[in-house]
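Support case: magnesium ion complex. Customer-provided input:
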Amino acid sequence: METAPEISVVVPLYNEEKTAEELVASVKSTLEEIGGTWELVLVSDGSTDRTDALLQEASRLDTRVKLVVLSRNFGQQAALCAGMDYARGRSVITMDADLQHPPEVLKEMVRLWRGGYEVVFTVRKGAAGAGWLKRLTSNLFYRVLRRLSRIDVRAGAADFRLLDRAVVECLGGFHERHLFYRGLVNWVGFRQIPLEYAATPRFAGKSKYTYKKMLSLAEDALLSFSELPLKLAIVAGSLAMLLVLAYAVHITVLFALGEHVEPGWTSLMCVLLIFGSTILLSLGVIGLYIGRIYEEVKRRPRYIVRRDFGFERPPEVRD
Ligand code: UDP
Ligand code: MG
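Agent response - structure generated as follows:
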């Protein structure tokens, strides 16, 4: 039986035919410089271009390069989950395929891990290549998330980090279907250390994160780390209730003072609208969480593997 390598590098790829070869080459050469045993676990997240063929070839040429092909596009977080399940290393590094996460940084990560840290997470300096709108929305989002939840995910956080085997095992035991690693890793604790790096522009191809995908990641993050939206519904409801009460008092006072009070259509409508909108709002928020509960209860797998290449034996299916 093969012994566990010292380092596993996990990379999710979705239609990255333009960067795949360069990625494999540069990660390999960095790992050779670092020294020690390693494996490269590539996860093709339902790619429809030549990515799979290129990676398969890379895996054929070097037994340390392994490939997991998912049956369709499951999203980056699920692809990461697959990669971490397959990875056997005593430390597991996750990074993007587009070389926005420079392989150079791996050296410092591994040095810190060998020095005893169990989580080395990265903080991006600058935002190479990202447009202003993406920067703005991403900064805003992390600010809101920090406020609403008790986890401290810094702006510029990405899925570029090193985890010790102990942390990987711990995350592997989590049952939630919607994963948001940036939050989970922060949540689990252990000895963590931030590492600054300058992001480089995407090597080739376009961003695989459409706005739809970003929104869905934001939703995962908010709903899995905060109950505040649920409370917000209550707050909004109470506010509306207060408004209506104040209005009722106002009318009663006018009436008591002998003023003429029109049995008004407008006031009725106001009350109706206030109540209507609060109820809808609250139902919406509750609905979001119920939807989540439904998803979790179904316990469908987070990803499905179509084929894998280069592994001695696939990991045990985790729930
Ligand atoms: N990715 C993935 N599945 C997806 C979307 C993205 O595996 O559905 C991968 C992608 O190939 C890349 C990483 O996730 O390795 C980050 O994506 P990208 O660089 O496109 O995002 P950005 O840097 O623009 O936020
Ligand atoms: Mg990128």
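The beta strands are 7-13, 38-44, 65-70, 91-94, 119-125, 161-164, 192-198, 305-309.

Case will auto-close in a few days if no follow-up is received.
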